[in-house]
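Me: I hope this is not a bother. Any chance you could explain this protein sequence and its C-alpha cells? It all follows right here:
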Amino acid sequence: MRQIFLDTETTGLSPEAGDRIIELGCIEMENRRLTGRNLHFYLNPERPNHEEAVKIHGLTDEFLADKPLFASVADELLAYVAGAEIIIHNASFDVGFLNAELKRLNRPKFEGVVAQVTDSLQMAREMFPGKANSLNALCKRLEVDNSGRELHGALLDAGLLAEVYIRMTRGQDTLVIDAGESQAGGVELAAIDFSRFDLPVIEADEGERTAHAEVLADLDKASRGKTVWKEAVA
C-alpha cells in the first residue's frame, strides 16, 4: 500500500476568488514505512499573498517571486501521486486548490489521478468526537513532537500528519508498536478461549479480610464519608 501525506500553503482561503498554491509538500509511506521519497515545491502564485496568510506561513511575495509556476511542476506532481492513497488533513481545502490549479492547465481532477483521498480530519472527528482535532491538537493528544512548528509549512505539516496518522491507526493486536516496524510484519496474538482453563479461586483468610476492612475504613474517613462502595453493596 502506497500512501502519500500531502499539505499545501496558499495565498488565501478561496480558490474560487483566485487564491493560489504557494507551497506543496508530500511525504511517502509504503507498508507503514516512511520511504524518504518526498516531494516539495515552493511556487510563484502570480498574485500577492493576503496579509493574514503570510502571518500563518511566513512566505512573502518577495521570497516566492523567483519560484517556479505550478504549470512547470504539474507533470511531476501527477506522476508522483498517481495510483496512491492521498491522506490530507481537511482534504476538501487542499483538493479544492489542487483542482483549481489543474483546471487552469486543462488537466483531470486530482481525485481522478489518485487511488483515493482520505481526510484525516474526518477520521479524527470520528475517533475523538467533541474534541479539538486540529493538527496541533492531535500532535499534543498523540504525543507527536511539533515544537518546531512556529509557522505552518507544507512539508513540515505533511511530516507531522504522517506521524499522527500512524499513531491514530496503530493496531492493538500486535506485540510490536507498529506492525510495519517489524520485518515479519508484526506478531499477531491469537484469540484465547479462557473457558478451557480451570482457574482456581483463592479466598482471603480472616486476617486479610480484617486488613482490607481497615483500609476501606481509613479511605472512608479520609473522604469524610463520601465513598461510593457502601451504596453499591447496600
Q: What stands out?
A: The longest helix spans residues 206-222. Confidence is low (pLDDT under 50) at residues 172-188.
